[in-house]
Amino acid sequence: MSISDIFTSAAGGLDEHERLRSHVEGIRERAAKAVPWGPDTVGIPPQAGENALMRVNDIAFYANARQEIVSFADLCLALLDSHRPRDAGAIGSGDSAPAQRCRCCMLRWPCPTVREMARRLD
Questions:
Q1: Domain extents for the chain?
Q2: Contact indicator for 16, 64 with CB cutoff of 8 Å
Q3: Cα gap 63→38, rounded to integer Å
Q4: Which residue has the higher pLDDT, 8 or 55?
Q5: Which residues pair with 100 in a beta bridge?
């Protein structure tokens, strides 16, 4: 499937922008509901050559991961709010749909920002 196929919405189906939005909203919702990890709540698997500093770093990572994922999802949603399609105002020829451009960067839709988000989040 090519990137242009991904962004073409089927009748009644979600376009790629809405699919990405739903995906990121799901990540944010699951992260917000997750119980924060800590040394008392979740066992951290031992590592080869483990030392106390590595263990502290692991605990700090797991303890902060929930909020960092929520913040990352908020960033993605803000980008998707900014970068969305709009009619470019051109007259299409024949039965083809008129060209669309991104509301934010005014590049041809799908813009590079949304294409890269789709590539990275899939």
A1: 15-84+112-121
A2: no
A3: 5
A4: 55
A5: 87
Report how far residue 92's alpha carbon sits from residue 43's, in angstroms, rounded to the nearest whole number: 60
Q: Name the pTM for this structure.
A: 0.65
Query: Counting beta carbons within 10 angstroms of the beta carbon of residue 15, is it exposed (0 to 12), middle (13 to 18) or buried (19 or more)?
Result: middle
Residue 10 has pLDDT above 60, yes or no: no
Q: What is the pLDDT of residues 48-93, one digit of tens each?
A: 666 666 667 777 777 788 889 999 999 999 999 999 998 766 665 6
Pull the structure tokens for residue 48: 């080869």
Which amino acid type is present at position 8? T
- The Cβ-side half-sphere exposure at 27, using a 13 Å CA radius, reads 20
The half-sphere exposure of 61 on its side-chain side, counting CA atoms within 13 A, is 7
- Helix (H) or strand (E) run with residue 87 in it: strand 85-87
Q: What angle, 0 to 180 degrees and rounded to 10, lies between the N-to-C axes of helices 112-121 and 52-82?
A: 140
Q: What single-letter amino acid sits at 116? A: E
* Alpha carbon distance 59, 84 (integer Å): 38
